[in-house]
C-alpha cells in the first residue's frame, strides 16, 4: 500500500501532516538514525578526549571529520543503515556497523573502529 494521507498510520502523518511536517526532522525514522549516529560519534570523541591509551593518537582536527558523518547524513546513508538492519535485525547494531564502514574510509580511524559503541548498550544510544 502506498503511503498517502489516507493510508498513514496515524492522523499525525495523514490529516495533520501539513501542521506536523516540520516535526519529521526530529521524530522520523531518518531523524532517529541521524541522532543515533551523532550520539555514537560524540561518544567516540569523548573517549578520545579521556584519553584512552588506544585512542590518544587521534587529534582534535580529526573530530571535524567525525562530526561530518552526522552533519552530512543523507537519506542514502539512512537507507544503508536499513540495509544493514535487514541483515542484523537490530537497529542500533546497524548504526554501529554503518559507522564502522565510515571509519574504514580513514587511515586514522579504521584501526580504532572497535571503540565505536565501546562500553555501551543499545539503550544508551
TrEMBL record:
<protein>
    <submittedName>
        <fullName>Adenylosuccinate lyase</fullName>
        <ecNumber>4.3.2.2</ecNumber>
    </submittedName>
</protein>
<dbReference type="InterPro" id="IPR008948">
    <property type="entry name" value="L-Aspartase-like"/>
</dbReference>
<dbReference type="InterPro" id="IPR024083">
    <property type="entry name" value="Fumarase/histidase_N"/>
</dbReference>
<dbReference type="GO" id="GO:0016829">
    <property type="term" value="F:lyase activity"/>
</dbReference>
<dbReference type="InterPro" id="IPR047136">
    <property type="entry name" value="PurB_bact"/>
</dbReference>
<keyword id="KW-0456">Lyase</keyword>
